[in-house]
Amino acid sequence: MKDHTKISNAVIKRLPRYRRYLNELRKKGIDKISSNEFSELTGYTASQIRQDLNNFGGFGQQGYGYSVEGLYNEISAILGLDKDYRMVVVGAGNLGLAVVNHTYYYKTGFVVKGIFEVKKDLIGKKINGIEIMDYENIVAFVEDNNIDIGIICTTKDAAQEAADKLCFAGVTGLWNFAPIDIETPSHVAVENVHITDSLHSLAYHMSKNADEKK
Amino acid sequence: MKDHTKISNAVIKRLPRYRRYLNELRKKGIDKISSNEFSELTGYTASQIRQDLNNFGGFGQQGYGYSVEGLYNEISAILGLDKDYRMVVVGAGNLGLAVVNHTYYYKTGFVVKGIFEVKKDLIGKKINGIEIMDYENIVAFVEDNNIDIGIICTTKDAAQEAADKLCFAGVTGLWNFAPIDIETPSHVAVENVHITDSLHSLAYHMSKNADEKK
DNA sequence: TAGATTGTTAATCGATTAACAATC
DNA sequence: TAGATTGTTAATCGATTAACAATC
Predict the structure, then answer these.
(1) Which of A76, A156, A211, B98 is most buried as measured by Cβ atoms within 10 A of its Cβ?
(2) What would the CATH number be for the domain defined by B85-197?
(3) Nucleotides of C under 7 A from a protein CB
(4) What is the pLDDT of residues B171-199, one digit of tens each?
(5) Could you identify the residue whose CA is nearest to the C1' atom of nucleotide D6?
(6) Does residue A194 come out as left (phi exceeding 0), alpha (psi in the -120 to 50 range) or beta?
């Protein structure tokens, strides 16, 4: 595998999508695919697919194409999906519970080890066998249980404080669902998921379609 | 407002973010901001901000800057947030319920009018006063209630079929949370939210950080 | 008026696409 | 070997940044 310290984010964002389609092919028992066929499937140009993949190494074979299984495994490894991640969720509201259930349902190497909440009446309950604990004890829990990722499902106002606590306790990644951009030290990766922004994009495209009709 | 039939998607994706920050400023009672100050706040360059805004019109004033309130309203209008949207949710699982609660909590002109489900034992229950109805009746409901947006919170396998039904019934937008890319006729806008892709990006960045440490 | 800051054009940078030689 | 398809370089395209004249 080549040195990939300076791969652009545009490329990284496409990898999970490539992987999703490869997984479908794999499940269908298809074992080879050319960049042209893959282009038709994914909507990316064949050229871009080859270019993207060659950032990481030559995974194909001239005159043949790519091994579906092989490429799937390579991309999984590039994304860091060849190991397990231990996670905690902060906030046991609907969003927190949806995330817990989602990872539980899709079982993928991302495992929720604990849920933390400030509201006393929720503490002690269990979701999918995972205990809801007192937010006060989050730092100790993260330290003692080698937690990798903190999932922030708090209100906007509580999010940055939760992030700071998690970073202090030693997580190396944050998955933030609160509608604010979380700041972290450079060694802690963050994904800010702004679900409402996506709804607003949708509204824009709907309005534009409506305008064009006139 | 200028003709904006060919605004790039990169620009559109930034608008909700601009709007979010403007809303914060507005709530703090700040009534003017320069592109330089706004740059520091949002992380985009002042040049890009001015360039982006000028796609839609000259909203600023030389020597002064931008009116926070005015710009907030302009961006809201561009995004189509100056009117209400009527929505239905397909799938009353955790994800569906999280979405229902989310829009309920943030009250923003996006109103869920009905929830549809195939599982008979859930039908008839209410969430935030919204009834869970039989999926069989979705087409009639969408037609009769002028529904604009369908929110797909089904399994992967059921998603495209639900999308087809919703399009047939006359929605003009789909917000899809199932892990598949939904296809629609060109007059129906779609936002495919791939929550898992974002987790995979996070994993990539975490792995990269870990590698650099070595 | 002088100073500040936009609106807009021009320059740069990066990402995508096209082309083709290498090779399986 | 001949055909197919990759890996990779070169060309194009688009998006971002820089610069500055317009103007409040």
Answers:
(1) B98
(2) 3.40.50.720
(3) 2-9, 14-19, 22-24
(4) 999 999 999 999 999 999 999 999 999 99
(5) A62
(6) beta
